[in-house]
Specification:
The complex is a heterodimer of chains A (about 260) and B (about 290). By secondary structure, chain A is an alpha+beta fold. In chain A, the strands form 3 sheets. Chain A has a 3-stranded antiparallel sheet, with no helix packed on it. In chain A, a hairpin with a 5-residue loop joins strand 5 and strand 6. Chain B has about 290 residues and is mainly α. Chain B has 14 helices and 5 strands. Chain B has a 3-stranded antiparallel sheet. Chain B has a two-stranded antiparallel sheet with strand order 4-5. In chain B, helix 7 packs across helix 11 and helix 8 crosses helix 9. The two termini of chain B are about 15 Å apart. Classes of the chains: A alpha+beta (about 260), B mainly alpha (about 290).
Chain lengths: ~260, ~290
């Protein structure tokens, strides 16, 4: 380039060398911008995580995780149960990032959390030191129509395999209206304890699991920030919130119904 | 020196493959070390070229990956920072783009394309600027900062090939095929010498690196042009080999030089040799 320029008239506003240089610069800049824009568009649209794909314990929130993970696979290698895998091109997970599918291999919740220790960048947050604090997702008994316990049987498998039995999943006693005389034991997940390890989903005896771990954002509702639960506020205050309230007896509808 | 004298006196054809062979051994050997783990349960090194742990002790992290992660707004943990420092120090010594020539497996793909292109006598078509890679690097870092997502890692053929070999390909081979065909049919040495932002990062990193190819015996050059023909970045040879009159020293200082040593291999006059960037004085050539 420099030699060619030397052969031409001295570089000035009108010189062909300068013109060619500017032209080349402009072309390269435009081409790069187009290409870079395309890649960015592809990357951002292809980064939606399907609900079945769960991140390892301690993973940062998905949008931050996609910036922090270098896709080295050290977490995959240090997982003693071969739970984790790196997404390959063509799979619906951001290529090269670690994930697991609970129904196939759930997280065994190792106490020393080797996957988090292995992560060099902190995409898996080293602040996570107690595996019970992990929130990989939330188990939801998503299909009550096929769950055997809901049908009145005593399957209980999801409850029995739960590493936090009686905390993350409890069995809630309920009346069986179908038989009129039996009880139902309804598996009930509690989000304050469930780590999303997926052992319940993996163990569900149905052809397709009735209980599934889904991303927290999908599973949870959120109260309006201004909502206050009266009974909790009352407990906090330690006394009725309004003085001199007269608690009248509740009137039930008459047997003949309301007219 | 002795071998050169020997080969001329005995009229044997010069053996022209030393550095190329060593490079291939290095590239394949490094991948082999990574594959020993999953294939033979011998864990010399865990992870992949993006970030890994050697002998459960030494962390290594690719500077380009770390740069992207930092651009996304994430402050990496000490392990990655330490790993990158070690890698950066190493390439500051041996030449930034020594990564491209001696480690990166894509180099084998693109060298094959370049070789085949010459065998088939395919004319160069698209002309790309060699600065494109720096534009691309800047664009991608900007996009990463704006989106918070390491966008390049969705398509990076370098990551895909090495990770694919170590962890499984999926459809990543399609990306590699695209790179191969691009180099073969579209632009000569298109990928590694014009576009790859990873190589661009290593270029910038090793701009002042110590180990360099030197043309100390440039007075012996007989203008056969073999070095220019085989060099993936021929523009770096020019000032060192022909810069005598302009008062330029004999060291190849261009930051895009991959330290592949192919010029040393092919030069019948033994003009080139590996050395350091120091003592880049004129008198060395006379």
């Amino acid at each position: 380039m420099t030699r060619e320029q030397h052969a031409e008239p001295a570089p000035g506003p009108q010189s062909p060398g300068r013109r060619r240089f500017l032209q080349e610069m402009a072309m390269t800049a435009c081409g790069t911008a187009l290409f870079g824009g395309g890649v960015t568009l592809y990357a951002t649209t292809a980064s939606a995580l399907p609900a079945q794909a769960l991140r390892p314990p301690g993973a940062l929130a998905e949008e931050r995780f996609l910036g922090a993970c270098v896709r080295c696979g050290l977490c995959v290698r240090d997982c003693p149960y071969d739970t984790l895998d790196l997404a390959r091109l063509g799979e619906p997970v951001a290529v090269g990032t670690p994930y697991f599918v609970a129904r196939q291999v759930p997280c065994e919740m190792c106490e020393d959390i080797p996957c988090v220790k292995a992560c060099p960048t902190g995409a898996l947050d080293p602040e996570l030191t107690d595996i019970d604090d992990a929130r990989m997702g939330l188990a939801v008994l998503i299909d009550q129509e096929t769950c055997l316990n809901f049908l009145g049987l005593r399957c209980d498998v999801c409850y029995q395999v739960c590493p936090l039995i009686d905390e993350a999943i409890t069995l809630e006693l309920d009346h069986n209206d179908r038989t009129g005389k039996h009880a139902r034991f309804l598996p009930t997940v509690h989000s304050e304890a469930c780590t999303g390890c997926g052992k319940c989903e993996a163990a569900c005896v149905l052809e397709k699991a009735a209980i599934k771990v889904v991303p927290m954002a999908l599973a949870k509702g959120q109260l309006g920030s201004h909502y206050r639960l009266g009974w909790e506020e009352q407990e906090k205050a330690g006394k009725p919130l309004l003085d001199n309230i007269i608690d009248l007896p509740d009137r039930m509808p008459a047997s003949g119904g309301l007219r | 020196m002795n071998t050169a004298a020997l080969s001329t006196t005995m009229a044997l054809p010069r053996w022209r493959w030393k550095w190329l062979l060593l490079r291939r051994l290095s590239q394949v050997g490094i991948l082999g070390l990574f594959l020993l783990g999953p294939w033979a349960e011998i864990w010399v090194v865990k992870g992949n070229l993006s970030s890994n742990l050697v002998l459960d002790l030494l962390p290594l992290t690719d500077p380009f990956l770390l740069l992207q992660t930092a651009a996304s707004g994430h402050l990496p943990e000490t392990t990655a920072l330490l790993g990158t420092s070690i890698v950066a120090a190493f390439y500051l010594l041996v030449g930034g783009r020594a990564f491209c020539g001696w480690v990166c497996p894509v180099n084998i793909v693109t060298d094959t394309a370049a070789w085949l292109r010459e065998k088939l006598d395919l004319r160069p078509r698209a002309r790309l600027s060699r600065t494109t890679r720096y534009w691309l690097l800047a664009t991608l870092l900007l996009a990463t900062t704006v989106t918070g997502v390491v966008v390049w890692e969705w398509v990076n053929p370098v990551s895909m090939l090495q990770r694919g070999l170590i962890f499984g390909f999926g459809f990543a081979w399609l990306v590699l095929l695209a790179v191969f065909l691009f180099d073969l049919l579209v632009a000569q040495r298109g990928w590694c010498s014009h576009l790859c932002p990873m190589g661009a990062t290593y270029s910038l990193l090793g701009a002042g690196s110590v180990v360099r190819v030197r043309a100390d015996d440039r007075s012996r050059c007989d203008d056969c042009m073999e070095c220019f023909r085989v060099c993936p970045e021929p523009q770096v040879i020019q000032p060192a080999l022909k810069g005598d009159e302009q008062g330029l020293g004999p060291v190849i200082t261009g930051m895009n030089c991959t330290n592949c040593g192919r010029c040393i291999d092919v030069c019948d006059q033994s003009v080139f040799h590996f050395g350091t960037r120091f003592h880049n004085k004129m008198e060395a050539s006379s």
